[in-house]
Design brief:
Number of helices: 8
Radius of gyration: 22 Å
Order of helices and strands: HHHHHHHH
Structural class: mainly alpha
Strand content: under 5%
Number of strands: 0
Helix content: 55-70%
Distance between the termini: 51 Å
Mean pLDDT: 75
């Protein structure tokens, strides 16, 4: 992680039209996300939740939380942002047929990890405590 100099951050933030503390938070968050994305273990196993949180935003929330950190010449259109995020997520979350079949089965309380895993992974996942807890006796064919 980078070491931040408050006076340098102040100058950079002023030049860009941001509040120094907000600018620092954004830089630090960028560092954290870059680290997660570059770490071999974390990048494939850590799922950050809240991607649909943009739908919970309100115009009031934009005015109080986002507008103060925007540059004066920038404008944030909530409706456009919600639409763009929705389109991006739909494009990003394109399930393979086996993944869709797994989800349908899981919702029907059928445990079919072979649709997603093979070999040693399959045996480990087959006994996953969360799946056993979530599906209860139905995991063993007892309904």
């Amino acid at each position: 992680m980078a070491v931040y100099d408050k006076s340098l951050l102040g100058r950079q933030a002023a030049k860009l039209g941001f509040i120094r503390d907000t600018y620092e938070k954004a830089l630090r968050l960028t560092d954290v996300l870059s680290f997660i994305n570059s770490d071999p273990l974390l990048k494939d196993t850590l799922a950050l939740k809240g991607g649909t949180a943009i739908n919970a935003l309100t115009v009031r929330k934009i005015r109080t939380d986002l507008q103060p950190v925007l540059r004066k010449r920038d404008w944030f259109d909530l409706t456009v942002a919600q639409q763009r995020v929705s389109e991006y997520l739909v494009e990003l979350i394109n399930l393979a047929p086996a993944e869709e079949e797994f989800l349908v089965a899981f919702r029907a309380r059928a445990w079919r990890p072979e649709l997603l895993f093979s070999d040693e992974e399959l045996e480990r996942v087959r006994r996953h405590p969360m799946a056993i807890w979530k599906l209860g006796d139905s995991i063993y064919g007892n309904h």
